[in-house]
Specification:
It contains three helices and no strands. It has 74 residues and is mostly helical.
């Protein structure tokens, strides 16, 4: 997510031609966009990071549900 925020800020600064960004080539900014694309489409999936947070959420929900069920049966 941080990569996307940096990318948006870089595009905004380059488009507005603010200070040092005026001298930076569009290739550098588009290269950063390409890296972000690769990260979110391939690398994150390959490392399993896209499912990790989802799995943790489901595990937490499962524990809470079991806790409620056992509490209600007493």
């Amino acid at each position: 997510m941080i990569l996307i925020i940096i990318l948006v800020v870089a595009y905004a600064l380059k488009f507005a031609e603010v200070s040092f960004m005026e001298q930076v080539s569009w290739w550098w900014i588009n290269g950063l966009a390409f890296i972000a694309f690769l990260w979110f489409e391939y690398i994150e999936r390959a490392l399993g990071l896209d499912k990790k947070s989802e799995d943790l959420l489901h595990e937490k929900m499962k524990k809470e549900r079991l806790k409620r069920e056992f509490k209600n049966k007493r």
